[in-house]
Amino acid sequence: MGGSWRGSRRSDRRGRTVDPKFFWLAFFLFAFLCVPVAAEQLVRVGVYDNPPKVAIDEDGTVSGLYPDLLEYIAAKEGWTLEYVPGTWTESMERLDRGGIDVMVDVAFTAPRRELYAFNNETVLVNWGTVYTRPGLKILSLPELEGLRVTVMAGSTHTVDPGGIVDLAERFNIRCTFVEFDSYEEVFQALASGRADAGVVNRVFGLVFEAEYGVERTPIVFNPIELRFAFPLDDPLTPLLIPRIDHRLEQLKADPDSVYYRALDEYLLETPKRETVIRWPTWLLPGLLAAGAIIAVLVAAVLIVRREVRERTRAEEAHRRSEERFELAMRGANDGLWDWNLTTGEVYYSPRWAQMLGYDVDELERTIETFHDLVHLDDRERLRAEEADYLEGRTDRYQVEFRMRHRDGTYRDVLSRAFVVRGEDGTPLRFVGTHVDISERKYAAQQLEEAKEKAEAADRLKSAFLATMSHELRTPLNSIIGFTGILLQRLAGPLTEEQAKQLGMVQTSARHLLDLINDVLDISKIEAGQLEIFPEPFDLPDLIRELTDVARPMAEGKGLELRVDVDPAVGTIRSDRRRVGQILTNLLSNAIKFTEAGHVRVACTEAGADVLLSVEDTGIGIGKEDLAKLFVPFQQIDTGLTRKYEGTGLGLSICKRLSERLGGRIEVESEPGRGSVFTVRIPKGS
User: Fold this and answer.
1) Which tens digit of pLDDT belongs to each residue from 12-47?
2) DSSP assignment letter at 647
3) What is the DSSP letter of 644?
4) CA distance linking residue 187 with residue 328, whole number of Å
5) How far apart are CA 657 and CA 521, in angstroms?
6) Which end of the chain is less congested by CB atoms within 10 angstroms, N or C?
7) What pLDDT is stored for residue 667 in this prediction?
């Protein structure tokens, strides 16, 4: 919406008019004194429809708690407000690029603090709440399993740490999240039965739950402070923040201010009733006729009456404040504490006491009650956290510690809190919540113990395989060597059948040795024992050497073996043995799985890397089988009738070696048309 502040159409907040004579007198006085009159500052305000905190009706009129506060501040500061409406996402994008000067109703979180500037004074404290469609009863987070859950896109209760998505991931709850642009759409989806559950902020839910007929659950989470947000680098930001904070501090200190009237009007729906005292017309003449003694008595009565009235107002404001707080906490499963730093008294909620096995009436309302129940090893750290936050050295209070239960055991507790300060910045109240996280901590990191045991078992397995594989290689090498001597007839003549049988023994022994070598390599890699020895070597020479070795095998199958090396490729610094092992495996596979056509080895430069590829015209690989290629002991051709021999470790070793060399391996393939395996390796320096 592009207009200026809608409040400028009124004379002032109380309906009074300004005397024109006073205006002209002030004008000429300033002109005479040569004091320049500054033009009103235009402030662009981002708003989105989220009643009752901020609402935009059909004709574009903006109303709600935040607009009332901003309009009051603008009137005091001489600003002109220009509302810029949109969805939540659109408004935050405008804030990112400086399209607005201030955004209302933004949760103050650590991630957002890196992106935007925030004022220091909190406007509201809010929570996320889970609602369900009519007739569906849900009492805990795990019951969201398998349900369709509606949320508002970009909301802190949706995407930030502690939001519903984060909680679902942490507790492994599988549900379907559907995003909408507003909380109204979330409730509409629930009311129409298009969703099972939905997440809105606590204030919105309390105001509109009856209208939509949705059902509130006891699931309340993610307490947040709502403030105004500003672009980080906007020159107007350092001017707006201190003025808004100053005005908010004044408003909070006055029980009859527009701040509390707006809370009553928009959140509690209890309009303020003011008592107007009308003096009789005869009273003043009567008082004037009375003597000096009566005048003194009346003055004394008035003074006492004023003090009583002020005290009554203060008590009423305190009562309303307690009602608001109780309303906000109702339904939450957290323990609440409220430390009055002026009087030293501490309020502990029934749930706070129950978490530790006590009835709330059994506990003395002092901060020592709290501190004495904290584990001795955590007490000093907790006091330091409190002091740092209260004295302004940190801007967030969130701490974990242990507290002693009545039965003598200790409970793990997560506490979050915020401080209420006076106009001079002095801390007045320290308010926070306690959550029992004992079960969560026990389940964790337990999970960490199981993970460590699994990793230890895996390392033991790898070490065992490495040792056994090494022990098996010695006799196999002897078998291969002796059968070679016999086949060369160095020990005497052989019949044709004997030579055939010895050849089968030697082939089987070599096959088994290849398997053991592969197992040894993969075991070393998994155990972290495979060492890399980089050194300069001529890559084209290595390619020619290995292709010359593989050429007889290719020609034996009637395949053409091509080699294309870019002249720009020369010496690289890497592990020559491991690069050769990768190329040998890829060449062997290409020849094994190709029945006709050709196998091509190519090498080119690519910036700081070299690309080594092996292309074939073999059987190819389907998309559904690509995921199996680099998994140890996995082969596409499986079963008792498989056509191609192999361990299923070659490509897995190639992948691991490529990564250990600082590179990676990729594959392109199509069934019946062949495959291309490409290895990217750094040239080194």
Assistant:
1) 333 334 444 444 344 334 333 333 333 479 999 999
2) -
3) S
4) 20
5) 10
6) C
7) 92
- Using the structure block, give the residue that is written with the tokens 């596409």: 636
Calculate the alpha carbon distances from 551 to 276, 277, 590, 645, 654 in Å: 108, 111, 12, 20, 21
pLDDT (tens digit per residue) in 599-616? 999 999 999 999 999 999
Q: For every residue of 553-583, which 3-state class applies, written as one string?
A: HHHHCCCEEEEEECCCCCEEEECHHHHHHHH
Q: What is the pLDDT of residues 543-555, one digit of tens each?
A: 999 899 889 889 9
User: How many of the other CB atoms lie within 10 Å of CB of 35?
Assistant: 9
Would you mind telling me the total number of residues written for the chain in this entry? 685
In the block, tokens 């004709």 appear at 59
Tokens of 310: 């002020």
Distance between CA atoms of residues 170 and 175, nearest Å: 13
Helices (H), 171-223: 183-191, 202-212
The 3 state secondary structure assigned to 174-185 is CCEEEEECCHHH
Question: In terms of Cα–Cα distance, which of 97, 168, 86 is closest to 128?
Answer: 168
pTM passes above 0.90: no
pLDDT the model gives residue 371: 93
Residue type, 261: R
Answer yes or no: are the C-beta atoms of 50 and 183 closer than 8 Å: yes
Assess contact for 223 and 163: CB atoms under 8 A: no
Q: How many CA atoms lie within 13 A of 235 on its CB side?
A: 1
Within a 10 A sphere around the Cβ of 101, how many other Cβ atoms? 25
Indicate the range of 289-293, 495-499, 648-652 predicted with least confidence.
289-293
For residue 387, with 0-12 CB atoms within 10 Å meaning exposed, 13-18 middle and 19 or more buried, which class applies?
Answer: exposed
Neighbours of 504 (CB within 10 A): 11
Question: What does the buried/exposed string (b/e) look like for 201-237 if buried means 16 or more CB atoms within 10 Å of the residue's CB?
Answer: bbbbbbbbbeebebbbbebbbbbbbbbbbbbeebebb
Tokens of 182: 């507003």
Q: What DSSP string describes 61-119?
A: -EESHHHHHHHHHHHHHTEEEEEEE--HHHHHHHHHHTS-SEEEEEEE-HHHHHHEEE-
**CA-based nearest residue to 124, from 57, 181, 68, 82:** 68
Q: Which two tokens stand for residue 508?
A: 């089987």
Q: Are 266 and 124 in contact (CB under 8 A)?
A: no
Show contacts of 439-448: CB within 8 Å, 24+ apart: 440/412, 441/412
Residue 209 tokens read as: 């739950």
d(CA 41, CA 384): 43
Count of beta carbons in the 10 Å neighbourhood of residue 132: 22
* Sign of the dihedral through C-alpha 381, 413, 342, 247: positive
Query: DSSP readout, 478-541?
Result: HHHHHHHHHHTTTTS---HHHHHHHHHHHHHHHHHHHHHHHHHHHHHHHTT------EEEEHHH
Inter-residue contact 193 to 133 (CB < 8 Å): yes
DSSP 22: H
Q: Whole-angstrom Cα distance, residue 233 to residue 250? A: 27
Distance CA 8, CA 78 (A): 10
Nearest to 626 by CA among 583, 582, 677: 677
What dihedral do alpha carbons 381, 386, 389, 392 form, nearest 10°? -100
| Residue 164 vs residues 91, 127, 175, 197: alpha-carbon distances, Å | 22, 11, 11, 12
Cα(174)–Cα(159) distance, integer angstroms: 16
Write out the two tokens for 35: 């004091």
Whether 17 and 11 have beta carbons less than 8 Å apart is answered as yes
